[in-house]
């Protein structure tokens, strides 16, 4: 049963600390997405990659957020320095560009910045 | 601009009642996909259904059914004989064929009361 995995599942940190979230996409999926879910904004796309190359990161605060895919099996989202307003659930999803165009979501990382 | 509206923020029904969750979308594209996701209290996003814009046939899966009407840009979701386990937040979402970004509605929180 292929699934997207994310680590850590929960993270509590203090303001100013660096946070790194990791995602392992489903094997064979060449498109990886990062979403953020908050009560106020709902689910919003931060960035996504295809074949490890960033295609769109317009939803991501550039000054403190960065996303990378060191290899096809790992995507990372880093926040440095973290702020309380970054508290949210961060979802990773993977998929393929052809039909059925479905994105498979990981379980999410719940981040709390104190 | 593309948009998904779920006007019902929160709904409560008594178990065994039928309930319909509304979804209205906006797009000028002719080829697009519509989705419903369920987010139970555990937090993961569970895929329920995908529809492409050329397939207006309604679909039934057990107690779940979906009514897609292009004339009114709606993709409503009905749960028949609701159960407590159906309690969750339900998201309607839109994906344009020319793009990779899923646009989510704000979600409808459904409470099924025993």
Topology (SSEs and partners):
The complex is a heterodimer of chains A (114) and B (114).
Chain A: E1 5-7, E2 10-13, E3 19-24, E4 31-38, E5 42-50, E6 53-56, E7 65-71, E8 74-79, E9 88-95, E10 103-105, E11 109-113
Parallel strand pairs in A: 2-11
Antiparallel strand pairs in A: 1-3, 3-8, 4-5, 4-9, 5-6, 7-8, 9-10, 9-11
Chain B: E1 3-5, E2 10-14, E3 19-21, E4 24-26, E5 32-39, E6 46-52, E7 59-61, E8 64-69, E9 74-79, E10 88-96, E11 103-104, E12 108-113
Parallel strand pairs in B: 2-12
Antiparallel strand pairs in B: 1-4, 3-9, 5-6, 5-10, 7-8, 8-9, 10-11, 10-12
Describe this structure in words.
- The complex is a heterodimer of chains A (114) and B (114).
- Chain A has 114 residues and is mainly beta.
- Chain A has strands at residues 5-7, 10-13, 19-24, 31-38, 42-50, 53-56, 65-71, 74-79, 88-95, 103-105, 109-113.
- In chain A, strands 2, 4, 5, 6, 9, 10 and 11 form a seven-stranded mixed sheet that branches. A four-stranded antiparallel sheet of chain A has the order 1-3-8-7, with no helix packed on it.
- In chain A, strand 9 (88-95) and strand 10 form a beta hairpin.
- The radius of gyration of chain A is 13 Å and the shape is globular.
- The mean pLDDT of chain A is 93.
- Chain B contains no helices and twelve strands.
- Chain B has strands at 3-5, 10-14, 19-21, 24-26, 32-39, 46-52, 59-61, 64-69, 74-79, 88-96, 103-104, 108-113.
- The mean pLDDT of chain B is 94.
- Classes of the chains: A mainly beta (114), B mainly beta (114).
- The interface between A and B is medium-sized, with 23 and 19 residues.
Short descriptors:
heterodimer, A: 114 residues, mainly beta, seven-stranded mixed β-sheet, globular, B: 114 residues, six-stranded mixed β-sheet, four-stranded antiparallel β-sheet, 12 strands, 0% helix
């Amino acid at each position: 049963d292929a699934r997207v995995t994310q680590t850590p599942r929960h993270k509590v940190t203090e303001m100013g600390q660096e946070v790194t979230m990791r995602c392992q996409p489903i094997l064979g999926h060449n498109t990886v997405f990062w979403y953020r879910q908050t009560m106020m904004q709902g689910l919003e796309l931060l960035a996504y990659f295809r074949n490890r190359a960033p295609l769109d990161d317009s939803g991501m605060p550039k000054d403190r957020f960065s996303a990378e895919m060191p290899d096809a099996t790992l995507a990372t989202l880093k926040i440095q320095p973290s702020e309380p307003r970054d508290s949210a659930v961060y979802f990773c999803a993977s998929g393929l560009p052809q039909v059925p165009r479905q994105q498979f979501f990981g379980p999410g990382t719940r981040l709390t910045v104190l | 601009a593309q948009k998904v509206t779920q006007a019902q923020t929160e709904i409560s029904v008594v178990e065994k009642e039928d309930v319909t969750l509304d979804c209205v979308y906006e797009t000028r594209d002719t080829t697009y996909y519509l989705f419903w996701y369920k987010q139970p209290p555990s937090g993961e996003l569970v895929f329920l259904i995908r529809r492409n814009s050329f397939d207006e046939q309604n679909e039934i899966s057990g107690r779940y059914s979906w009514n897609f009407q292009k004339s009114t840009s709606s993709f409503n979701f009905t749960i028949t004989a609701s159960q407590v386990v159906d309690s969750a937040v339900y998201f309607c979402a839109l994906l344009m064929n020319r793009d990779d970004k899923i646009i989510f509605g704000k979600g409808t929180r459904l409470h099924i009361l025993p």
